[in-house]
Design goal:
By secondary structure, the protein is an all-beta fold. Helices cover about 0% and strands about 55% of the residues. It has no helices and eleven strands. Strands 2, 4, 5, 6, 9, 10 and 11 form a seven-stranded mixed β-sheet that branches. It has a four-stranded antiparallel β-sheet with strand order 1-3-8-7, with no helix packed on it. The chain is globular. The termini are far apart. About 30% of the residues are buried. The mean pLDDT is about 95.
């Protein structure tokens, strides 16, 4: 069994920052990619950022220059630093970890950007 536990969401004003964390535990086998997705009301889930164990990263165009994905491989944890937040960043954010045994998702954490 694999568990992904997210933390760090909340309410923030436009221009503010938040840091999301996702810790992976359980029957872990060779994590390579780790990523963050988000889903806003009435919209499809979309990739926000992803990171490989080799250090490669990619970002959605809408968050480039504002969000940074990082990871601590020793702790099986992935982070998403979100700066200069905008109202359109409001969504439920999910971490995602594909492994040989399956594709695993966190429970989701709400991020609301509003004044």
């Amino acid at each position: 069994q694999v568990q992904l536990v997210e933390s760090g969401g909340g309410l923030v004003q436009p221009g503010g920052s938040l840091r999301l964390s996702c810790a992976v535990s359980g029957s872990i086998f060779r994590i390579n990619a780790m990523g963050w997705y988000r889903q806003a009301p009435g919209k499809q889930r979309e990739l926000v950022a992803a990171s490989t164990s080799g250090g490669n990263t990619n970002y959605a165009d809408s968050v480039k220059g504002r969000f940074t994905i990082s990871r601590d491989n020793a702790k099986n944890t992935v982070y998403l630093q979100m700066n200069s937040l905008r109202p359109e960043d409001t969504a439920v954010y999910y971490c995602n970890v594909p492994m040989m045994t399956g594709i695993y998702w966190g429970q989701g954490t709400q991020v609301t950007v509003s004044s």
